[in-house]
Amino acid sequence: MKHLLKRTGWCVALVSAYAAAPACAEDFARRFALQLDEGAAYYSVTVPAAVYAASQRNDLGDLRIFNGAGEPVPYSLEAPREPARTPPSLHPVRWFPLRPAPAGQAGAPLGVTIAADGSLRATAAPPGRAQHDTDLIDAGAASHEGRASALLVHLRDDNYQGRVSVESSDDLRNWQPAGDAQLLKVSYNGSTLSQDRIELNGAHARYLRLHWLDGAPFLESIDVEVQAAGAGRAQLADSRREWREGIVAQAGPKAGEYFFSTGGPYPVDRLRLDLPQPNTVAPAVVYSRGELGGAWREVSSATLFRLHNGAVEQNNPSLQLTPDTDRHWRVVVDTRNGGLGSGALTVAAGWRPATLTFVARGSAPFTLGVGSASAVSTAVGRDELLMGASSVIATARVGEALALAQNGNGLAPANADAYRRYVLWAALLLAVGSLGAIAWRLARSVSHRVPAGDGAGVSSVPGVSGAMASGPGETAAGVTDAVRTASAAPQNAAAGGTASGASAAGATPAGPQRDDND
């Protein structure tokens, strides 16, 4: 009995210790090598797409950093902060239609002259449409307020589709590329689809030149969008956006319904939907959800289009979203005008990755583990992690995924959780089996144990001792019947004695009588 109790206690202790054990490097489905420059106490690394894809939590809570001994080290995880964006200011500008410039021309183009203050003035009538391929813009005072971030070109034409490139200059002699775009204005189903924005590279220049590659349109007006100081940070943040392209959406059971998965908890803030067939226009609503079976929530809506005109093809711009880590997405297209037609809807998802900062405690090599169903976030705040003058942060890089055999105990990382579950179940079954054996031993001993006082009284009754001595195979029912028989025996004996007394009182015993004379 003592051995069984000891075994049960050890099983319970094993289960408790194993369940409460902290996460170790072998508990994670994927591990990546970290490349560090020697000598720094703190390192930061941008979370790559492969780590997002391996994570099993939407908040990257199953991410850890381990040192060479397999010990987790403190870390912080920060989502990218949206740069402060000062609302841009719009300034109407003057433009001058030009004829094609002669080769090697220097100074002001033909048809304009430069005033002392740098402003442009027309000196000739504008060229005809056949000779018009360039427009010269004078940004004027707007060029002194900040950097030009975009041009808004408002077209007079009801239907136009064409490409345009932009150059910038401060002296009308030296020109630098500043941007390009495709402009669109199309009437559709009683409404107008237009794309009149030309993104610029933040040029700080007085003059801009538009080259129309597919014929010059009739212009209604032009506005230049000027960003104040600090806008460069926002453009830098946009340039750091990562993309996962080539996602194929599957048609759903209902017409106009399409489903796709991003394949990881990427914080998607841009979504580009590419239509399968040219000359398609269709309104659409986009939904997302975190888990299968969850409720869909609407995240965006837009009119999708893909228009083809000769060598020019125009597509709807990317949808701008609040960062969304949901994996499952649904697009519902209005099918009243034919929907998207045949072919597959393809998707590109863009996001700005998070930054991970950790303390290089312990010895190298350091690794990044991710993909544990049982792990919860242990990240601390960045301010709590960084301490004093030693908080100089070096840059680390995420290397290739480690081979499965490099997970310390020889187990494949994907089987680490399964192995742990098997050990827990084995310990639990052993504990339950020990408890069952203890219960069986106790039940058996109780069924054969009779108190000393009761045994003496029963053994004095005729017939009971034989029943009790019948061996361990005697059932409880047999013992009960024996006890009942023994209890009835004294009553029958008493009844028999009374009858004998009555007979003696009313009869003379037979036998030879004695003669008194003898």
Automatic annotation (TrEMBL):
Region feature Disordered, mapped onto this chain: 464-518
Pfam families, per the entry: DUF3999
Signal peptide: 1-25
Keywords carried by this UniProt record: Membrane, Signal, Transmembrane
Record's protein name: Transmembrane protein
InterPro entries in the cross-refs: DUF3999
UniProt keyword GTP-binding present: no
Nucleotidyltransferase found in the keyword field: no
Bias-annotated ranges (Low complexity): 485-512
